[in-house]
Amino acid sequence: MTTTAPEKPPFLRAAFGGLPRPFWALWGGTLVNRLGAMVLPFTGVFLTQARGLSVAAAGLVMAVFGAGSLLSQLLAGTLADRIGRRATLAGGMVATAAALMALGYSTTLPAILASMLALGLVVDAYRPASNALVADLVSPEHRPRAFGLLFWAINLGYSVGMTAGGWLAQQGFLLLFWLNAASCLVFAALVWRAVPETRPTGESGPGGFGMVLRDRLMVAFTLVTLGNALMYAQTYTMLPVAMTKLAGLTTAQFGAAMALNGVLIVIVQPLVSGWLGRRDAPRTLAAGLAVMGVGFTLTAFVTSTAMLAVTIAVWTAGEIVTAGIAGTILARLAPAHLRGRYAGLFGFAWSAAGMLTPLMGSALLEVGGQPALWFTTGGIGLVSAAGMLAIGPAIRRR
């Protein structure tokens, strides 16, 4: 007598079915890595409290980290095409573990600066390789769902990791470094054992990044991505400042409202990824960017926790729509042997936004207060949506 495994409910098949086993190894490694990503959110506290640095010195350290992250995506994208996706991802994770431990045991400013520069160079080096792996492993019709599920894993892991990190930091910062480094090594081992190398053989990338930059459609898409990133980066740079300093909310009220972002993503993302993947990608991404723009514009009128929660629900809806689509378009645009470099330029836009947003946001707050900041941010979203619609026909032809 034989038995068959119970059939999965239709919604589970739609959300999780049809993806190759190596993708799930990548997904699991990403989740573990984000669960352990406890150091960076508390770096400022670590530098000022545990190492006794001044606010100015801590700012210098974070600027050095930002400079490293700008170079990181371009270097990692090149490596993903030259030495392979698996080697770049696993090597980047091992290097991140080493940089984390070096930072955790650094006690002088020169040592801290060197460790933070190294950490900036390697901490997100896995991203171009991960994007290229998904494009290599997953068939085009399933890519929106695959990229959406990776986005879901990152948010799920980060939410839990942040909560645990806040408690563990009270027990001693060094514990955070050890756990974060361990999660990086687990990710590296899982990818090395369970994910095959997918870099096309017998092909090279003539011209390196010059060839990517000569692709005017990719450059235009990168500018759209920069607009998306400039909006999203407000959530962890100027939004906390504006809500607590100008809107009069307490940190507890702000934290409670922001928790809605993670809850909505964890619940809604797997349910809608398949449906979104069947829509026209450029129009879908444009719609998501426009919704995000509206959500951030509404933030100018926030005076209570409930109003903030409404605006967060709006821009989170846009974030969910864009999550799996951007990577899908990137995979369409990139030749197989240049997917790492294309993903590196895509990631460069996000790193650049991380450095530009605090400068832009603080200047706008000083000049025109909340209306200037949030109307400008919303305007960036609408302009990005219009740009996406404008290049949509070229993307469909590609």
From TrEMBL:
Residues 22-396 form the Major facilitator superfamily (MFS) profile domain. The chain crosses the membrane at residues 23-47, 53-75, 111-129, 149-169, 175-195, 216-234, 254-272, 284-302, 308-330, 342-360, 372-395. The keyword Oxidoreductase does not apply. It is a multi-pass membrane protein. InterPro entries: MFS, MFS_dom, MFS_trans_sf, MFS_Transporters, Sugar_transporter_CS. It is found in: Cell membrane. It holds the Pfam family MFS_1. Keywords: Cell membrane, Membrane, Transmembrane, Transmembrane helix, Transport. The keyword Membrane applies. PANTHER family: MULTIDRUG RESISTANCE PROTEIN MDTH (PTHR23517:SF2), RESISTANCE PROTEIN MDTM, PUTATIVE-RELATED-RELATED (PTHR23517). This is MFS transporter.
